[in-house]
Specification:
The structure holds two protein chains of two kinds. Chain A is mostly beta strands. Chain A has a single domain, classed as 2Fe-2S iron-sulphur cluster binding domain, sarcosine oxidase, alpha subunit, N-terminal domain (Ubiquitin-like (UB roll)). Helix content of chain A is about 10%, strand content about 30%. Chain A has a five-stranded mixed sheet, covered by helices on one side. In chain A, strand 1 and strand 2 form a beta hairpin. The radius of gyration of chain A is 13 Å and the shape is globular. Chain A starts with a strand and ends in a 9-residue tail after the last strand. By secondary structure, chain B is α/β, with parallel strands linked by helices. Chain B has two domains: about 180 residues, FAD/NAD(P)-binding domain; about 150 residues, D-Amino Acid Oxidase, subunit A, domain 2 (D-Amino Acid Oxidase, Chain A, domain 2). Chain B has eleven helices and 18 strands. In chain B, strand 17 and strand 18 form a beta hairpin. In chain B, helix 2 runs parallel beside helix 10 and helix 3 crosses helix 10. Classes of the chains: A mainly beta, B alpha/beta. Chains A and B meet through loops of A and loops of B.
């Protein structure tokens, strides 16, 4: 096995070259990685083709990246997202 | 059934289901008139849905427009008390005008001094205190003025709620009916409005067609000099509450009042209940050109980041544009068209239509019923342009 990995909320997730972050997470058994803004409900892949913006997560500190179209990369730091992903800006 | 209603006609037909038409319908119905509202499109489909929903006193100098704005502000609060603030998403958020340099701060202070004399509360804020109002503001701004009376509504919701309230009072709203002309009686008085759908008999007709008021006025027989002034707005991705007030730079006031035909931009930043932040404001006189201008959008973004540096890290989702209805003297056209008996105008409110709508609607209702107007309509007289031409 020559699989590479990124971290998701601190733990390693293996991926194959060319796989999206969302595909790798789903293959690893992770089905939700975002909670909605108002009701905090779980979200993961929905359309899977970059259109619906349901599968948002934080990639290397950038919120609102679409898991389904961001290619997985070795050493990437992926985190689940709460609400807007910009909570630290709240006043 | 609708046939019979049509035969009977209405005391007043209001052309335009934007915020001004909705306010005219509401106050007309409340005064006991039977009202029919016509629009060629949908409710709030024109400039009402292309703005930010501001009800501002902060950007107006002492004069007739500020008088109208103060009266209107009181009516908005009254409407919110009667129908619930949620019916309009009315927020008493207040405005914060900030200077980006010392000359700007000096003119801002002078401007506020002039407003204070007639009922506008303006609180000077030092550069050091600005971030107590808005923690995300840039640290190097020299100061500003806080205007607690500035309000905001969701404009399309506000128009729809006013129309719903008018319908509760018996008004009728007909969408998808474009005015094509008017019928006049033997004495020259307007007696009916012809549309692409049917003809609506009317005791009086109110031209509340906003930016298209010139065209509608012409079709009804009395033209008014209303022209479009284009503006773009950027919409960010949804955020938590990052901006508490309407925040804008001091240059905005000068741009609003300017007669320059070229592009003018200044920073106007505010949050919405939905979480998006709206970023304006640009002004250009380019007719009804709907082309998106990347240069304008770039400038708006740069101005906004100057005030709120965090915005550089936030995505813009989309932009929209609208056409403000402006008159040559920057005052709306409200009142009787004495060339055509039975015709009234209520349009040309430029970028202030949401704020000025209730007082405009009440004034139109007063003129229709013969009640004593609670505000001097003289400065808004549609005939002021005609007399100048003569």
């Amino acid at each position: 096995m020559t699989e590479e990995s990124f971290t998701f909320d601190g733990r390693p997730v293996a991926f194959r070259p060319g796989q999206s972050v969302g595909a790798a997470l789903t293959a690893a058994g992770v089905r939700s990685w975002r909670s909605t803004r108002v009701d905090g409900r779980p979200r993961g892949l929905f359309c899977g083709i970059g259109v619906c913006f349901d599968c948002l997560l934080v990639v290397d500190g950038r919120p609102n990246e679409r898991a389904c179209i961001v290619p997985a990369d070795a050493g990437m730091r992926v985190e689940s997202q709460k609400g807007t992903g910009h909570g630290r800006l709240e006043v | 059934m609708s046939e019979r209603m049509t035969e009977r006609g209405s005391d007043v037909v209001v052309v335009g289901a934007g915020i001004i038409g909705a306010a005219c319908a509401y106050f007309g119905a409340r005064a006991g008139l039977s009202v029919t509202v016509l629009d060629r499109g949908a409710v709030g489909g024109g400039t009402t849905s292309r703005c930010e929903g501001n009800i501002l006193v902060s950007d107006k100098e002492a004069g007739p427009e500020l008088d109208l704005a103060l009266a209107s502000r009181g009516l908005w609060l009254q409407l919110a008390a009667e129908h619930g603030a949620d019916a309009f998403e009315l927020e008493e958020k207040g405005g914060l005008v900030v200077a980006t340099g010392d000359p700007g701060l000096a003119s801002l202070r002078a401007f506020a001094a002039g407003q204070g004399a007639i009922g506008v509360t303006a609180v000077p804020v030092s550069g050091g205190d600005l971030r107590e109002y808005e923690p995300n503001l840039a640290e190097d701004l020299p100061g500003g003025t806080y205007y607690p009376q500035d309000l905001q509504v969701q404009p399309v919701l506000a128009a729809a709620s006013l129309l719903a309230a008018a319908r509760d009072l018996g008004a009728r709203v007909v969408t998808g009916a474009e005015v094509t002309g008017a019928s006049r009686g033997a004495d020259g008085r307007l007696i009916a409005v012809r549309t692409t759908r049917e003809t609506f008999p009317a005791g009086a007709v109110v031209n509340a067609a906003g930016t298209w008021g010139a065209v509608v006025g012409e079709r009804l027989g009395g033209s008014v000099p209303v022209l479009p002034r284009r503006g773009f707005i950027l919409v960010t991705e949804p955020l938590p509450r990052v901006v508490r007030h309407k925040v804008y730079s001091a240059d905005y006031v000068a741009n609003v009042a300017s007669d320059n035909a070229g592009l003018e931009t200044s920073a106007v930043v505010e949050g919405t209940r939905g979480g998006t932040v709206l970023i304006g404001a640009s002004r250009e006189r380019v007719g009804f050109d709907e082309t998106t201008s990347p240069d304008v959008l770039r400038r708006l973004a740069a101005h906004a980041v100057r005030l709120f540096p965090f915005l550089a890290q936030v995505r813009v989702m989309r932009s929209y544009r609208g056409f403000r209805p402006y008159c040559p003297d920057h005052l709306p056209v409200i009142g009787l068209d004495r060339r055509i008996p039975g015709l009234l105008h209520a349009c040309g409110h430029e970028g202030a239509g949401i704020g000025l709508a209730p007082a405009t609607g009440r004034l139109i209702a007063d003129l229709l019923t013969g009640a004593a107007p609670q505000l001097d309509p003289g400065p808004f007289d549609p005939m002021r342009f005609v007399l100048e031409d003569a």
